[in-house]
Amino acid sequence: MATRVTRRGVLAGSVAGATGLAVGSAATAAPGYRPTGTATRASAGSAGAVGRPRLRWLGNNGWEIRFDTPNGRRTVLIDPWLTRFHTGTYTEQGADPNTPLSVRPDVIDRYHLAADHILVTHGHYDHLTDVPYLAGKTGATVLGTETHVNLMTALGAPADQLSVVRGGEYLECDGYTIQVLRSLHSMTGERSRVAFAGTRPGHPPATPKVIADLVEGETLAYLITVGEVSIIDFGGSNYLGAELAGLRPTVALVPVGGGAIHRYVPRLLATLGNPRYVLPTHWDDFDYPLDEPARDYGGLAPLRTAVRQASPASRFVVVDHLETFTP
Ligand SMILES: [Zn+2]
C-alpha cells in the first residue's frame, strides 16, 4: 500500500526496521512525552501466523490498526477524521453548533487509507464526518449504533456496508476479532453534560448540515484482538465499568479528560487489569492540521500523572500525529 511519506513516517519506518523497536521516532514527539515502549517484534514469517498489529495515530480518536494475515494485509480504522475543518472546539467560546460540516476528499486521499472494518464510537462531527466517504472509498464494513448508521446513511454512505451493533457483539473476522462494548460519552462543562446529546432511531434523518446535526447517538468502545495482542479504544472519556469486567487488553487507548467522572483513570485501569501500554487519544487541538505535530490542548500531563499514579507498571506511550506504535 502506498503510504504518504512524511519525515516522521520515514524515521519511524527506519527506526523500526533497523532495531526492531516498536515505537516511531521520538525525535519529533513533544518534549517530555517521548514514546517509551520498546517491545520487540515477534519473530516474523512463520507460516500461518498473524503478524503483530501496528497502530498509527490519525489525530483526535482516529487510529489505524494494520497487520498481516495468511490471507493478506488487514486494516481496521477507528473514528477516522482527516478533514479536520475549523470549529474552535478548544477555544474559550467553544465550537459554534452551526459550523457547517465539510468533507475534503483531497485531504482524506492524501493518506491512502485502506480498511476492512471502520469502527465508529459515536456520532459527533470529530468522529463520524469522514466515515461515509471512507466507506465508499475502501469498501469497508462499518460498525455503529442505529443512530450512527442512520446519520451515515443520511450523509450518503453505501447502505449495504453499514452494520448496526448495540454492544455485546463478538465478531470473528479474518485473522482478528472485534468485540463491541456498550460505553458512555464524556460529560463536560459546569453541569457535566454530553454535548449534542440525542439519538436518531428509525429512519435516517434529513441530511446533516452542521455539527449539531451529528448527535452522539450513544457511545461504543471496541476491543480488537490480533493474535496475542488486544487493543481497546474509547471514543470519549467515560465507560461502563461492568462491560469491561474481565477484559485484559494489551493496549488501552484512553482519551484525556474525564474530570467529571469519579476516579476516571484509576477505576478504568484497575478494571482492565493495568494494561501493559496506555496510549493517550483525543488529546490534540483539531483546529490544526494532521500533517503538523499534535498540539496538546491541556489534557496530556494530567492523564500521564493519573496513569503513573494508578498503574505504575503501565507504560504511557505518546504517539504523535501519523506516528506508529507496535506493542
Ligand atoms: Zn464526542
UniProtKB/TrEMBL annotation:
Mark out the compositionally biased spans (Low complexity).
34-46
Q: Where is this region: Disordered?
A: 27-46
Superkingdom of this protein's organism:
Bacteria
Q: Does the keyword Chloroplast apply?
A: no
Residue ranges constituting the Metallo-beta-lactamase domain according to the UniProt record: 59-282
Has UniProt tagged this entry with the keyword Signal? yes
Looking up SUPFAM superfamilies in the UniProt record yields: Metallo-hydrolase/oxidoreductase
Query: What's in the keyword line of the UniProt record?
Result: Signal
Q: What is the residue range of the signal peptide feature?
A: 1-29
Write the protein's name. MBL fold metallo-hydrolase
The source organism is Actinocatenispora comari
